[in-house]
Amino acid sequence: MKHCIVRLVLLALGLWVVGARAETGVTPTTIVIGQSAAFSGPASELGNEMRAGALAYFQMVNAAGGINGRKIEMRSLDDGYEPDRAAANTKKLIDSGVFLLFGYVGTPTSNASKPIFTAAKVPFVGAFTGAESLRNPLNRYIFNIRASYFDETDKIVGQMAGQTLDKIAVFYQNDDYGKAGLAGVERAMQKRNLKIVATGTVERNTVDVAAAVAAIGKVDPQAVIMISAYKSCAAFIKAMRAAGYNPQFMNVSFVGSKALAHEAGPAGRGVAISQVMPFPWNVSNRVVKEYQQQLAASTGKQEYSFTSLEGFIAAKVLVEGLRRAGNDLTRERFIAAMEQLRDFDVGGYLVTFTPTDHNGSKFVELTVIGKDETFLR
Predict the structure, then answer these.
(1) Is the pTM of this model over 0.85?
(2) Using CB atoms within 10 A as the burial measure, which of 50, 90, 249, 250 is most buried?
(3) In 218-279, where does DSSP find H-type helix?
(4) Residues near 65 by beta carbon (within 8 Å), at least 6 away in sequence
(5) C-alpha–C-alpha distance, residues 272 and 237, integer Å
């Protein structure tokens, strides 16, 4: 009888230990998350700004005691905006024991990482990309906080059509990102019975735009929609203007608005960019006011941008999901909590997820680069 009681006690203790075992990346005091983004190379400003915005919010949360007593630790690895490096980083982060992946930058890098985190059943939250490949069909581990490239390009083409500009060309990066944007433009054009008059490409992480300028300049378009990163877009704009062409230039948000304005200089004035985040200088917007205060406190600088604001908002949505998942934090509980967010208001920006739709927002507005690298709505 005594032996039976001892065995029952040991069994009960064993079951308790198993039940109390924490999820990967979760300790009594920390939640470890991983990020792969461009922190070097021609797209580095995007990665650095995305990370800065996220860290500003995480630091505020940690200073207030964290989430259910746990502080967020973000491990960031540089992929230089190259898919193979992003895939290797993703494997490394998962193998090192992160709870989830957050704030990746780019379509080709995210696509290369998708099979890895999906197989490992690791959530992937708030990537800086609008690609349809990360939206449809539904992948239960991916949560998109921004609008899609289909949403952005539809807004851009609608604006052009409203101005009776129908001679539209497309300059795009020759990779997953550029092709995703091109597909969005084609879809929006077909919807309005319009056809793209010319296309030109540039290779990722290069600024060799001469062939694209020749191909697009040949038709002298009224407008050019650009789907590339800031350095190549700036090079294209400058080369087109130097060749005597002055169409309306339009970009999707991934270009990196602040970086493009700086890189293009005076040639960038009048260039339009679709945005999927609130205006970072509109302090009447609650989340923008909070973002400005926290970013300045975190970095010691008042250098605001759409990209760092996106990092801040993505971090805020992530933290809400972690809070709602409760003290017994697991990946499955986190996914379930995120899928219950309905019109979650981060402060003038709403996010909604459901079990069948992980695309949190459709918000898009257009901005224009004004004088001295400022922005107009």
Answers:
(1) yes
(2) 50
(3) 230-242, 257-264
(4) none
(5) 12
